[in-house]
Amino acid sequence: MKERMNYILPILFVACAVFAAFTTMGQTVEYRRMSGMVFGTTYNITYQGGEELRSEVEAVLDSVNNSLSPFNENSVITAVNENREVKLDSMFTEVFRLARQVNEDTEGAFDITVAPLVNAWGFGFKNGYMPTDSQVDSLLDIVGMQKVKLEGGKIRKTDPRVMLDCSAIAKGYAVDKVAQMLRAKGVKNMMVEIGGEIIAHGKNGNGKVWSIGVTKPNDDTLAVKTEMQTVLKLTNVAMATSGNYRNFYYKDGKKYAHTIDPKSGRPVQQSILSATVIAPTCAVADAYATSFMVIGFKRAMEILKRHPEMKAYLIYNDEKGEYQVWSSPGLAK
Fold first, then answer.
1. Of the candidates 142, 139, 124, 128, which has an alpha carbon nearest to the alpha carbon of residue 71?
2. What is the dihedral of CA 302, 297, 222, 213, to 10 degrees?
3. In Å, what is the CA distance from 7 to each residue of 10, 13, 44, 159, 210?
């Protein structure tokens, strides 16, 4: 999934490989690869095409960063959070509207106004602390999508302390925008991955659909225990995975994970260990993967029944505390 070009291969081997890759049915079928850092994580892109598109990819990523990153002091979302006058761009408004749709569909489980709570628990864009029950209750007063709306090209808040954090949807959205740019350039075969959120289109360099690994949800803040749970064969879909096994901390012997329940104001304690969602767009997959971590197994099943266009691969603990796996019917095919 995160292949990188190996520049130290012998020249003769590279020449043979390039010749084989370039000559299928008389057409150029070169697969280019690029990787880098964005949004505090890595990105890896593989696509078929003769044109070098790194500058175009970076331009898309910069646009998303300038719109949706709360870590960027000059971004649109930072201006909104600081109650400064700002012209909302199309990226911000598109993500805001999608976030509201998912919020309504999940009965509030997905909520981009949860930022004050995420920050308070030490997982956001401000320094956190261990909040008391009264502090959590106080912050809940300024959390909820009903407290913010898009009106007349501006964000209207019921309370100036309301803050937005699109981290649970922005990476997926960025994947969508990069893939959209590549398709506009005529690219049909591609794999775009940002921080584990993925779009796979067409076929890989071996003429097969893309193989995407799902990591076992072992507690691993340093990302060194990358044992594979399974490998999914995907094409023409997007995939996102959410789990509490990478971003967490222990205090007084208790684990605190980064997914915050907007209703309780506290880190989730659901049975799902890892939620992988496959959907038509990566932003949708990203948002619902987070939602499933909040609502748990049974309610996730209810949502999947309403959305036949989505599939899921869920790793969870059953009522006996035993490790279980569930996947949508037909996903094995």
1. 124
2. -60
3. 9, 11, 16, 54, 23
Amino acid residing at 63:
S
Amino acid at 171: K
Q: How far apart are CA 166 and CA 111, in angstroms?
A: 9
Per the DSSP assignment, residues forming a β-bridge with 154 are 151
| DSSP secondary structure string for all residues of 181-225 | HHHHTT--SEEEEETTEEEEES--TTSSPEEEEEE-----TTS--
3-state secondary structure of 161: coil
The pair of three-digit structure tokens given for residue 283, joined into one six-digit string: 């932003």
CB neighbour list of residue 133: distance below 8 Å, 6 or more residues apart = none
Distance CA(287)–CA(3), nearest Å, equals 26
**Rounded Cα gap, residues 60 and 54, in angstroms:** 10
Q: What are the tens digits of pLDDT across the range 289-327?
A: 999 999 988 999 999 999 999 999 999 888 787 888 999
CA distance 34 to 44: 6
* H-run or E-run covering 311: strand 311-317
Judge residue 73's burial from the number of C-beta atoms within 10 Å of its C-beta, 0-12 exposed, 13-18 middle, 19 or more buried: exposed
Distance of CA 317 to the CA centre of its chain: 23
Tens digit of each residue's pLDDT (9 = 90 or more) over 160-189: 999 999 999 999 999 999 999 999 999 999
The answer for residues whose C-beta is within 8 angstroms of residue 325's C-beta and 6 or more apart is: 229, 230, 313, 314, 315, 316
What is the Rg, in whole angstroms, of the alpha carbon atoms belonging to the chain?
21
State both tokens at 169. 């949807």
Are the C-beta atoms of residues 71 and 203 closer than 8 Å to each other? no
- Distances in whole angstroms, Cα of residue 13 to Cα of each of 16, 64, 68, 110: 5, 39, 43, 50
pLDDT band at 28 (very low <50, low <70, confident <90, very high): low
CA-to-CA distance for 195 and 47, rounded, in angstroms?
18
